[in-house]
């Protein structure tokens, strides 16, 4: 595992600077490190030089014409960190002197580790880069539907990552509590349908309340989310995934769309439907050409199997994705039954962003039904 460390050092300036007045003063520092320079033609866009040194070190020095100086240092992970820090410290100190009062901000970021065996970088839903404190991969499989990873984080415990999307960590009881109603629901004696939820968290929490029956529909088993989580996410699921059937629950290893359609045809009804499917559709049904069509289909089918006084819970998307949330609201207007909704905020530790859940109450009777949908944001 020969990963790269990538350091960045940025100087924001109050006015553009001439490279001829700054670069020569830095050269002695590079020469002391036995680095050889190459100056590149930037076609009028400031100054650019690269410096190559021992152990494969590379420095890119750029004096931008609009008032920014950037230094990038790349080295192998096993290089001498103290030496590299000394080099960056010397460059920072010298540049502050050379730029003499022109510096408005100096920013040095922690090193980015590139190409490491264990990937610590997982973006938020709205595309911001997060570095987790992940130190090892505890499980990885490619099921027929998705790539499944369980990664160990020092602060969040094991984290379930599906197709590069952080789904749930062992620290994230707040997620599970939010998607089952935030402690305001009484599941005793109720019929409950869980769509997805392969990590077992929802099932484990709802079972504690002694419902009449929970039916959980998860698309695959062996080499799957269930398989990984029952071994490596036991703080989340306990022992609930060890058996596909219990006193008040059953796990159906099937695609939920045909199951929902069958329940609609049979007139099967539930007091609660909890949709914990992944954000991207993985169903095999041909009619789900897009995420939104899939979402609307699941919503529509779920509401058709919901008792008149039943409730529907699901997750949404990052609160920063305002356009996506607006599109979600549009889907609610296209359902076979009209809906209302409200919003609430919940914080889930490993997400490091606020994220919506949906709670819908069915206030309707007969064929004319109206639902209140509450968006819980975690």
UniProtKB/TrEMBL annotation:
Lineage, opening ranks: Eukaryota, Metazoa, Chordata, Craniata, Vertebrata
Descriptive protein name: Spermine synthase
GO molecular function annotations of the record: spermine synthase activity
UniProt entry keywords in alphabetical sequence: Acetylation, Phosphoprotein, Polyamine biosynthesis, Transferase
Known pathway: Amine and polyamine biosynthesis; spermine biosynthesis; spermine from spermidine: step 1/1
Organism from which the protein derives: Echeneis naucrates
Similarity annotation: Belongs to the spermidine/spermine synthase family.
Self-association and partners: Homodimer. Dimerization is mediated through the N-terminal domain and seems to be required for activity as deletion of the N-terminal domain causes complete loss of activity.
Presence of the UniProt keyword Phosphoprotein in the record: yes
EC number(s) on file: 2.5.1.22
GO BP annotations, alphabetical order: spermine biosynthetic process
Keyword rRNA-binding: no
Catalytic activity, as annotated: S-adenosyl 3-(methylsulfanyl)propylamine + spermidine = spermine + S-methyl-5'-thioadenosine + H(+)
PANTHER family, sorted: SPERMINE SYNTHASE (PTHR46315)
Domain PABS: 120-362
Active-site residue list: 276 (proton acceptor)
